[in-house]
Amino acid sequence: xxxxxxxxxxxxxxxxxxxxxxxxxxxxxxxxxxxxxxxxxxxxxxxxxxxxxxxxxxxxxxxxxxxxxxxxxxxxxxxxxxxxxxxxxxxxxxxxxxxxxxxxxxxxxxxxxxxxxxxxxxxxxxxxxxxxxxxxxxxxxxxxxxxxxxxxxxxxxxxxxxxxxxxxxxxxxxxxxxxxxxxxxxxxxxxxxxxxxxxxxxxxxxxxxxxxxxxxxxxxxxxxxxxxxxxxxxxxxxxxxxxxxxxxxxxxxxxxxxxxxxxxxxxxxxxxxxxxxxxxxxxxxxxxxxxxxxxxxxxxxxxxxxxxxxxxxxxxxxxxxxxxxxxxxxxxxxxxxxxxxxxxxxxxxxxxxxxxxxxxxxxxxxxx
Length: 368
Hints:
14 strands, eight-stranded mixed β-sheet, single chain, alpha/beta, about 45% helix, Rossmann fold, 15 helices, six-stranded parallel β-sheet, 2 domains
């Protein structure tokens, strides 16, 4: 098969959507020709990466959600020209409320090939919270038609599928769940000791990720646990504000870490915290379990973290106000920490990227 995968975010940019296409794409490239279309990091570029052909257009601006949104316009123009000139057996797009989704749909229809949409989450009214009203309004209305324009929808979690059906009137017969995953072999190869008191966040630095809530919780914990440390890995529009917020406490920020280093940091952490109120599933939660690091996540309406974390079994689900209490619980109760760690490592065995990529390949073949 010749496969086109369309995503705004792709490594080295830290984002679950790009991570998924990278992991699935490189596995499918062993027997197929896989092309990734994405926004550039430092401008236009073409490269080969792990057997995939990567086409980058425009320049991603992590410091402005509005600029990132506008960059999708230039990307869409280049995407249209490239997809029009090349013949693919299937197009899979994970952008749901911006122009590239419609470009992918139009080309697929013109060339009579399947158009598949991969959904990490349903934004719905969250479009207005993430963007200004002028940009939020078109994003809100652009999201609605996509589920029924696609020949097949892939939801990454049961929560995302349910919200697609309830909020966007998606056809349940054309909406399947294929979860995100973890490269279990890579996690097994790296061995590091746990650092008691090390708290970790990995992800984009955007408003809905609520990293500020974690920093406030850390400030409270630091008064009691002098050895506690907070590491934040990721970039985004809130970076400067978060750095200013943490000026008087010991917080280490990293824009990016090489994969092996990131896994090592994950395995060394005592706890990983995902304070986000909006997640389709949360790949980082699965990776945390693979690293033997108990995760804490915020239980919010419409968030898919509850599909991954079984509260008190393989992690903790709490309200925003209880994050500090949850971290303190895992710092003080080593038996609970050991239990969550053991159960998480067992739970994540069902989420290997190899089996997930095989399910996606099977769906592509079926849609041809």
